[in-house]
Amino acid sequence: EPEVTQTPSHQVTQMGQEVILRCVPISNHLYFYWYRQILGQKVEFLVSFYNNEISEKSEIFDDQFSVERPDGSNFTLKIRSTKLEDSAMYFCASTMTANSNQPQHFGDGTRLSIL
Amino acid sequence: GDSVTQMEGPVTLSEEAFLTINCTYTATGYPSLFWYVQYPGEGLQLLLKATKADDKGSNKGFEATYRKETTSFHLEKGSVQVSDSAVYFCALRSTGANSKLTFGKGITLSVRP
């Protein structure tokens, strides 16, 4: 069964540095998402992306965050200048259609640790 | 805005016990409802879904019924196994283009032999 893959599985970075988290969505999916889960808290929506544009973003997704689909397969999340509070598990998800009855398929996540 | 409320955890059960995990929601319109499961060290996997009122989603012995009158989507299993130990998330996806998932806090289930 096709799956969403994320790399790296764990990223350790010094505060203030830039990080790029990578995702390869399922190949025929068109809608892409990033979520994050701070340890012990709920999974929170960050951003949705379709047709090379951001469709929706949460208040968490401020100017230090950006997303990109640089080629036909990768979907990246960049955090420009990391802060301690960015430490979390980041999940990428994709879905084929925008219909609300379609589930989103998730990757295994990247654990980001900011020192 | 949309929200999902799950019962407080963690939950610890003996093998073969009956499981109920409560979930209630607030949303405009007619959302689709989902249960996701996160096994230790893994990502989020879809467990089951229901897309309209009175629908029952089921998978791996788990069931949940979409109750619009009580805005609930409680997860049940008649006989849990040790391998069911995981974190369970209730989520909804509202109508509207490219709609995001809204998750509950999740609840950790531990099943002991």
Account of the 3D structure:
The complex is a heterodimer of chains A (115) and B (113). Chain A is 0% helix and 50% strand. Chain A has strands at residues 5-7, 10-13, 19-24, 31-37, 43-50, 53-57, 65-68, 75-79, 88-95, 105-106, 110-114. In chain A, strands 2, 4, 5, 6, 9, 10 and 11 form a 7-stranded mixed beta sheet that branches. In chain A, strands 1-3-8-7 form a 4-stranded antiparallel beta sheet, with no helix packed on it. Helices cover 0% and strands 50% of the residues of chain B. In chain B, the strands form 3 sheets. In chain B, strands 2, 5, 6, 10, 11 and 12 form a 6-stranded mixed beta sheet that branches. A 4-stranded antiparallel beta sheet of chain B has the order 3-9-8-7, with no helix packed on it. Chain B is globular and about 45 Å long. The mean pLDDT of chain B is 93. At the A-B interface, strand 4, strand 5 and strand 10 of A face strand 5, strand 6, strand 10 and strand 11 of B.
Number of strands of chain B: 12
What is the β-strand count of chain A? Answer: 11
Order of helices and strands of chain B: EEEEEEEEEEEE
User: How much beta of chain A, percentage-wise?
Assistant: over 45%
User: Could you give a short account of the major beta sheet of chain A?
Assistant: 7 strands, mixed
Helix content of chain B: under 10%
Q: Number of helix segments of chain A?
A: 0
Low-confidence stretches of chain B: none
* Rg of chain B: 14 Å
Query: Low-confidence parts of chain A lasting 5 or more residues at pLDDT below 50?
Result: none
The best one-word shape of chain B is globular
Main sheet overview of chain B: 6 strands, mixed
Greatest contact between two chains: A-B, 26 and 27 residues
SSE class of chain A: mainly beta
Broad shape of chain A? globular
Set out the fold topology.
The complex is a heterodimer of chains A (115) and B (113).
Chain A: E1 5-7, E2 10-13, E3 19-24, E4 31-37, E5 43-50, E6 53-57, E7 65-68, E8 75-79, E9 88-95, E10 105-106, E11 110-114
Parallel strand pairs in A: 2-11
Antiparallel strand pairs in A: 1-3, 3-8, 4-5, 4-9, 5-6, 7-8, 9-10, 9-11
Chain B: E1 3-6, E2 11-14, E3 19-21, E4 23-26, E5 32-38, E6 44-50, E7 56-59, E8 62-65, E9 75-77, E10 86-93, E11 101-103, E12 107-112
Parallel strand pairs in B: 2-12
Antiparallel strand pairs in B: 1-4, 3-9, 5-6, 5-10, 7-8, 8-9, 10-11, 10-12
